[in-house]
Amino acid sequence: MKSLSKSSRWVVGAIVSTLAFGSAAMGQSSLYSNTPMAGGGTPRQSQFWIDPTGENDSDNDAISWAPFVLSDTSTVTRLRWWGDSLPDLGFYVSFYNQDPNTIASQPDIFAAGSQPIARWTITGPQVQNVGGMYLFTVELPTALTFEANTRYFVSVVARQNEWYAPWYWYQGMNTGSTFWWQHGAHMYFNIAGGRAFELWGSPVAPACPADISGPAGVPDGVVNVEDLNAMLSVWGTDVGVGAPEDIANGDGFIDVDDLNALLALWGCM
């Protein structure tokens, strides 16, 4: 199996000290939740030794990747996770696509040139001790949008200043799995038991359904007289279920129901 190079996988451009519950937190809701099992369940190591010389790795180094799927296309602005106490040097936080070359639950890390969707060094998460377990909260430095019904991965890796110091990411209550790498074993594993974390943000508003036409008959992102004319041009006809003019009730017939729906969305962008 392949061994992960710390220098090539974790080139972090800047240290981000994250302030929790800032203005970006307004209007957020929970998009994905896997709260921890009692006592942390079966925790999984996820940490790097940060050698001051930058020359050495530790056989104790490990990475956990946690898969997730959102039911709606959504913008994620906040990440929360449960684990051991705050490591001395903070965390690496990264998001990954699913590996497109396999149906197995596996992050896109193996192909030449593959990169995470985003990654940051987080030195100042908000920390709460909840029943002896530590809950970490960060507002993402950059909001990320994820497509509905698509598998992605989040990785949280503690940054330790001692080569032997482990950090454990706790297990969530939902069934699931963890993709895991351990330096000393020189292998990757897909292990039963998901990690405990939550994603917060907001669903992406769907495109305006009444935007059915525009210049040269191409939708232009606004509902106006061009869309009205397109509907009137097929007024009273059966255009078939799923036709763009059939915006009201999906019956395939263009009538007053569709007209009222269009007028209710007039000016929608």
Q: What would you note in describing this structure?
A:
It is a single chain. The chain has 269 residues and is mainly beta. It has 2 domains: 6-203, Jelly Rolls, CATH 2.60.120; 215-264, no CATH class. It is 8% helix and 35% strand. The protein is built from 3 helices and 15 strands. α2 packs antiparallel against α3 (256-264). The longest helix has 9 residues, at 256-264. The chain is elongated, with a radius of gyration of 24 Å. The relative contact order is 0.22.
Question: Helix coverage percent of residues?
Answer: under 10%
Largest sheet: 8 strands, mixed
Beta-strand content estimate: 25-35%
> Rg to the nearest angstrom?
24 Å
Distance between the termini: 50 Å
Write the layout of secondary structure elements.
Elements (H helix, E strand, L loop, with lengths): L5 H4 L5 E2 L12 E6 L9 E2 L1 E3 L12 E8 L4 E10 L7 E7 L20 E5 L3 E5 L2 E14 L4 E10 L7 E2 L7 E6 L4 E6 L4 E7 L21 H8 L23 H9 L5
Parallel strand pairs: 1-8, 4-11
Antiparallel strand pairs: 2-15, 3-12, 5-11, 5-13, 6-10, 6-15, 7-8, 7-11, 9-10, 13-14
Helix pairs in contact: 2-3
Can you give me a brief rundown of this structure?
By secondary structure, this protein is mainly beta. The protein has helices at 6-9, 225-232, 256-264; strands spanning 15-16, 29-34, 44-45, 47-49, 62-69, 74-83, 91-97, 118-122, 126-130, 133-146, 151-160, 168-169, 177-182, 187-192, 197-203.
Keywords, separated by commas or semicolons:
single chain; about 270 residues; mainly beta; Jelly Rolls; 2 domains; 8-stranded mixed β-sheet; 5-stranded antiparallel β-sheet; 3 helices; 15 strands; about 10% helix; about 35% strand
